[in-house]
TrEMBL record:
Taxonomic superkingdom: Bacteria
InterPro entries: FIST_C (IPR019494), FIST_domain_N (IPR013702)
Name under which the protein is recorded: FIST C-terminal domain-containing protein
Annotated FIST C-domain domain residues: 87-231
Length: 251
């Protein structure tokens, strides 16, 4: 909704980079700061204009497992059925003994939208959706992003190595997108789920990005509950989950 609202004013050609506010995994309430005001349930944005280019890179490190399944019944961010079966039952069958740990264990196995719904024609990219809650009575799962009814989806998994490698690749893609301009600033928005999975190795994610962009330019950002970034040059900005997004300003 936020992206659609901003695009309706700015146009889809204007890149949007950022993330949704978080509260360190409590899922209770978030706060936003704007000038001298403290807000909640708000969206805060900063606009940049001038002679510069915003290069972007997006990668997650999660890989697809098994055959694509169709979201046969979904509404908003709630998935009710995959291939005509209760979504939770499909998840439980895949997770086996780990299913009892849902929804917490869901951060390790996000769903990836494929085809026209989310892979942007690139083999190592999926538009991911992270598990938020499960409703065992109705067999549904809610996610941290919209699930289009009729979309094709695949279960995914990753490990520390692939997740860290993805952060470095996101930075390289952003630098390549920037071209031969001079790097002036770096914005990094990474998912809190990545921080949970990486644990003590969280710092390495930023180190991988620094290895690409260097240490001489400022780098800002935060761990979010959802990341906003475009995947392709001049493409629309999308809401990602469990993904490292890197945006660089070139002048």
């Amino acid at each position: 909704a936020i992206l659609r609202g901003m695009a309706s004013v700015l146009g889809e050609q204007v890149p949007i980079a950022g993330g949704t506010a978080g509260d360190a995994g409590k899922f209770y309430r978030t706060w936003q700061f704007a000038g001298d005001k403290v807000l909640s349930d708000a969206a805060v944005a900063i606009g940049f204009s001038g002679d510069f280019y915003l290069g972007t890179g997006v990668r997650s490190g999660w890989s697809s497992i098994g055959l694509p399944k169709k979201a046969t019944r979904a509404s908003g961010n709630i998935l009710y059925e995959l291939d005509g079966q209760p979504a939770l039952k499909v998840f439980e069958r895949f997770l086996g003994k780990h299913a009892e740990k849902l929804p917490a264990v869901g951060v390790e196995y996000p769903l990836g939208l494929v085809g026209k719904w989310g892979d942007a024609g690139e083999d190592d990219y999926h538009l991911l959706r992270a598990t938020m809650t499960v409703n065992r009575q109705e067999g549904s799962i809610s996610f941290a992003g919209e699930i289009p009814e009729g979309a094709m989806m695949r279960l995914t998994c990753g490990d520390n190595t692939s997740i860290l490698e993805a952060a470095g690749k996101a930075a390289r893609l952003a630098m390549a997108d920037m071209g031969d301009r001079t790097l002036a600033m770096v914005f990094v928005y990474s998912c809190m789920a990545r921080k949970i999975v990486l644990g003590r190795r969280t710092r390495e994610e930023m180190e991988r990005i620094r290895q690409v962009v260097g240490n001489r330019v400022p780098m800002v950002g935060f761990y979010s509950y959802g990341e906003y970034c475009r995947v392709k040059c001049r493409g629309p900005s999308l809401l990602h989950n469990e993904t490292a997004t890197v945006s660089v300003i070139g002048i």
